[in-house]
């Protein structure tokens, strides 16, 4: 009798331990899932779903539940409200996503009290990382993607450039990083245009580019209808035909825009951390899973890889804390974490918590099937974010 009681006690104990382990960890993802930037948000979702399809939906016995919240445009007040609702009402242990810089800036003051890490899948202004020790970023910064372009431009015989950027964080960072790198390589930025974020008519900008006498234009705008409009204007107002060259980070030739840009995009040179065409076994697996999740080959773009790697970081945080809510411990656990991403080798810089990654020079080329792609033609390995130093 005594023995069977002991056995029963042990069995109940094991059951309780088992049920305590089968908890659910909630992850709140904020992104543009409707409106003009919906395809960018859809790519967040595709990256998350691809990661979970390939790596399972639980970590160390903790089930993972993802809760999405729609933030269609840059709107700091709404961003803060959504983050608060996710933390307080939904009791998420992790926040992720965030497409636009002002939305990320609005969330960082909440993290400490909420005891919640934020893993940024896109927002690309360098200074975001200085706002809270609980932020980790798996995307890129515009300073990081842009810096190699200074030398690339002078190597192609360009001495005078006009820059045109969206007038907010990532644009200002891109303008500064390009100027620094280009002038260090012997070039000169003859004029710097800052465009309001809501600019849709780019023909006056193209006129200023033409009038400036520059040999090339350097540009940054946030990917979406904005970039499509800008590159179309460059093609259609005759700048390209006039021999004015074009240099930009890859936001301006995202793969999902290439069909709409058609042959006009062929030859465009951009620098970026990820091309859908990246040739590696990890990317092949990723593209297959993410294409299924996004619902079409022409829809896949870079926010999907930021999200995929962001989920990798969140899974590692859950593993390190064994499901307990301890934001600082979770963040500390991924400092220095290194892995092979679909984009190539990456690691989380222990000091800045921003991703170190290869930046690739790519050229838009047309394949035998008539499809245009970003083809990687040069690699700048293991680039950290130089952004805070350029300010
Ligand atoms: C940003 O707001 O930080 C941002 C958005 C879209 C991009 C790059 C940066 O393509």
TrEMBL record:
Per UniProt, the keywords (alphabetical) are: Amino-acid transport, Signal, Transport
Instruction: Cite the InterPro entries for this sequence.
Output: BCAA_transport, Leu-bd, Leu_Ile_Val-bd, Peripla_BP_I
Keyword Transport belongs to the record: yes
Signal sequence: where?
1-22
**Keyword Signal among record annotations:** yes
> Domain Leucine-binding protein, which positions?
24-367
Stretches for region Disordered: 368-391
- Family the UniProt entry places it in: Belongs to the leucine-binding protein family.
The protein's name is ABC transporter substrate-binding protein
